[in-house]
Amino acid sequence: MKIYPINNIKYNLQAGVQPSLSPVNAEDVRNMTELSGIYMPVISFCGDYEEFKRQMLSLDNIHCPGCGNKMLSEKKLKQIVNNAAYTKTIPEYAKFLEKNKEYFHPQYQPFIAYVNRFAQNTPEKSIQDMLNVMSKGSSVLMNKQFVKDADYLQKQLERKQFSPSDKEKINECINYFRTLEKIPKYSDLKEHLLNTLGSLDSEQKWELYNKIKKNFQKIYTYNFVLKNRDINTAGLPEHAAVTYNILLNSKSSLASVYQNPAKEKRFNKFLLCDNCAASYKSFSAITSKPDAKEKLELYSNDIADAIAQRKLAGNNLYLYEFFRTVRGFTKNRISLDRGQICSEAKNTIFNEEKSQYIFSGYSGIPCACCGTNMLTHEEKEDIYRQIIKSDGLFELRNVAKVNEKYISRRYNGIIDRYNKILEKYPEITEKEMVQLLQKLTKRDLKQQIEKNKNEVLKYQARCRLNYLDKEYLNDYVYRVNKKYKNLENESEFRFDDYKKLLKQTLENINNPAREKFIELAKQDIQHLYILNRLVNPLPHVAEKTGGELKAIFENIFKGSVITVDHIQSRYEAGADEYYNKIGYCRDCNREKTNMTFEEWIKVHPEIRKNLPRHLQKISEIIKKEKIKSMYDYPEKVARFTMKLANGKLKIQAKYDTKG
Asked: What is the pLDDT of residue 218?
């Protein structure tokens, strides 16, 4: 689930009014697959799909995730073509092309070079004369290519051994090239190549077929746009029609990740240029390319810019949905990073996601999961001021001591370690303290990885693994030893890299024990990774706070801020109603991401104790403030959570709220 930071706007407690949201249909789409150790959420979309399509197709300057080139909306395309129509001379047309060359696919860049050459050498000629010369030139090139390919195939017959049947088909192709009187349609040529070279018995058939086909594709591209320059219904001059034919390849279209009519939903859509739409028959063809992640990130950043510019109003969540879709489709091989999205887009998305929670301004509410006393926004700001004003390591220690009830058990170890270091080395500097904390958290990670490895090997003795599974397990041991042997000296530990290592080794084991191996290998690693990140604050955060150590302390308390969580995710058809809302500390909310409530209880059984404590405190607030609209809130939440837990949770259902 998402973390919904608390809105500071005043709220009518008696009325309990909240913004209305359209209900989510749980059966809309269930496209995500369940990966090992990761719960992929159900994604639904209940807005105006036609409006979403209109908004997407109206976007300009979005880089195509297939080829990386900029795409055009139909409106922008017509605008550029109309501008081309106003050019009267070759130099004017050359200047126009140079100005708009970013919209031309790479295969058309030579066209711009040819026009520039004419503008320099024969500027007095008409544009129509230039196009006629270029058209004839493409025909000459095509005929020369026919001869070249016929000669190439003849040499292949002389150099290599082919069966009599294959020789007959190759000779048929050679004769076809040598006897052509006019340029055939591309579809006819392709069909002939398939019936001859594509039907060979030789293993080299596709090598020959693809080589010949590739030779013609580029020339046919030019031949088409130059031969069809009279096909326009708007009375455009010929060079504008040529521009239109070329830019059609850059026009954006709405493509699908999953080729399934039932998934005609927002999360499943992405923009693709018409050139790539004709080339790539599936999303897997795009994601299998070596630079796939780089191009998808470029596309995502462009969409983020569009969100920041309010061009996807009502559909800002599309970006996060697309992230999940890509992650699910590629089985986590390509994971797009939200952190790269511009802050303006994040703010816009937040405004669409945020949810009201009327108990956010009350002190002393324990987290419904871990039981930590949660901080209101005002209390957090007060502690931040104490941290910023503190002078020296001992004053920071005192701030932590005074506010220790707000420190979750996740960070008690960091605070205890800080105090012990300070007690042992009272003269230690702030820089030395940070470096020591960083070194020790790295040591903890290294020791835990080693411990997990030994647990995996110990469990192996109880399993019957085949030869291949043993190889995968041995590969896991080898990679762990090699990669994390000197972890304390490395600059950064990435949890994603560790998961990738497991994906390439233990997750390939074809044995019922695989899940146990993965569980053993992962235990406590994510928690220690979070602690390691905590003691390695980002430079701009440290600069803003007044130093790395103060940034560390701020982040410790930041994790205890009260946030609202939807017990049943909105992606799982959860409504934005109060019976489906509960207060979690920021850290618990972040950890719960994408888990069902039933799974969440399994991970954190302490909910059985802390949820009733949480509801009891809420009951006291309702009773004291006489919030009539919320009298039945604790009971509804208790019954709803027990229902979602499928019998795995039994808690108090009755609470005194009326007095």
From this structure: 66
Please tell me the pTM assigned to this model: 0.55
Distance linking the first and last C-alpha atoms of the chain? 35
Q: Which of 389, 396, 383 is nearest to 429 (CA)?
A: 396
Instruction: Report pLDDT digits (tens) over 408-438.
Output: 999 999 999 999 999 999 999 999 999 999 9
Q: Please enumerate, as own/partner, the contacts of 412-415 that have beta carbons within 8 Å and a separation of 24 or more.
A: 413/531, 414/531, 414/534, 414/535, 414/552, 414/556, 415/556
Euclidean distance between CA atoms 483 and 481, whole angstroms:
6
- Tens-place pLDDT, residues 28-82: 333 322 222 223 333 444 457 889 999 999 999 999 999 999 999 999 999 999 9
Cα(176)–Cα(267) distance, integer angstroms: 49
Residues 6+ apart with CB under 8 A from 24: 44, 46, 570, 571, 573, 574, 575
Please name which of 615, 642, 648, 645 lies closest in space to residue 631, comparing C-alpha atoms. Answer: 615
Report the 10 Å Cβ neighbour count for 160.
11
The β-bridge relationship of strands 269-273 and 252-256 is antiparallel
Strand (E) or helix (H) holding 105: none
Residue 480 host element (H or E) = helix 467-484
pLDDT at 210: 83
| Nearest of 238, 551, 513, 575 to residue 390 by alpha carbon | 551
